[in-house]
Amino acid sequence: MPIKVLIPTPLRPYAGKQSVIEVTAKTVGEALSDLVAKHPGLRRHLFSEDGKLRSFVNVYLNDEDVRYLSKEATPVKETDTVTIVPSVAGGI
Amino acid sequence: MAALNDRSQATLSNEEILRYSRHLIMPEVTLEGQKKLKAERVLCVGTGGLGSPLALYLAAAGVGTLGLVDFDVVDYTNLQRQILHYTGDVGRLKLDSAIDKLTAINPLVEIKRFDTYLNSRNAMDIFSGFDIIADGTDNFATRYLVNDACVLSGKPNVYASIFRFEGQASIFAAESGPCYRCLYPEPPPPGLVPSCAEGGVLGVLPGLLGVIQATEVIKLILGVGEPLIGRLLLVDALVMRFRELRVRKNPECPVCGANPTVKELIDYNQYCGIRGQESEASTSTKVPEIQPEELKRRLDAQEDIFVLDVREPHEYQICNIHGHLIPLGDLPRRVHELDSSREIVVHCKSGARSAKAVDFLRRSGFKRATNLAGGILAWAERIDRSVPKY
Asked: Could you say which of B164, B195, B246 has the minimum Cβ distance to residue A64?
């Protein structure tokens, strides 16, 4: 089913400059796979060489960190929003 | 928080009662709250974009002791957002400039200055004199250092970070909530996440986030409302939307978990990669380089050199040296525009993006690609002073 993935500013250059991308998925993992299939440039920012989600990229389903749900296997429904929250260090 | 030292003894003079009268008449503050503010000691790490509004408001609000950590000097590019520093301060130590302004706003605040780069050797000692730490730094190494030192010393870390139009804020208070490492267990590899120096930042954005930090500091001191503990506030100023995400305490957190592996401060520059500071000038990729003087001499001698500029079109508009423009992100699909038999000198603003481009080009068969050391900034500095620096 179609769900929204919110792309943070630092990753937008790799996502066709879009802030929201609609993907088709039944789980968070499928949503991310569909996302990198649509925008291959995002892959190295989200996944390590061995295909694991990078530890400094947090993925939220609505307001909850998927690490505390069922990680990539977490099911999604149509009204859900997946948010990618990368670490940002800037301050000065 | 922990300022048990002289909080009960703090008294307000008639001058202070007048100055803080708009606080005193609020039921959430009152005379008692204002005395708490006076007795509190808050450390601002950094007096830049976030640290400016943060320190200004804390001083105005009557926080009794403000510590400032900074080693930097004011430069022109700071003035667009670092409102503690004025045009006439360019070239001065940020600490000197900051103390002038803070004292002018509120001479009753005691300011402690730490003219140093916060590091693993001095952090615990500096933190020991304060009750709350507010992190307004600009690089991952210092952010992990501030976090770990806060956890180890049991002090709350009032956090914010910014990028372009977006910001994040939270309070990491490991005794009752998660820490920064619970949210981000590991730093990204150097170079993968752009800094404000590379990516830019809207001038008012640190204002917005720094004021959120100041608000959270004051709420912590007063013990009122709901602090941002366990919540990550995401601010997108472009659409002006505030969202909130849950941050959970990770039971396996290496520093605040049940079985911590980090029990003392480590070498954070090493932990976060050699680029402790996310400056574009330092390159993480080792590629052959050419100095600006050498390029100038060879171009003047009419040698066949193709200059490739991998910055963004809006940067090219600011200044250029007539290079062929292909932004780094577009290079893979536009590489056919280049001739692998020719010598190619690649440049960006200060050398980091072009190093990645040279690395990519060499791996793609462009064996004669080299990186212009120091980028167009070095060119502007050493070859052609008419080229503006940005």
From this structure: B246
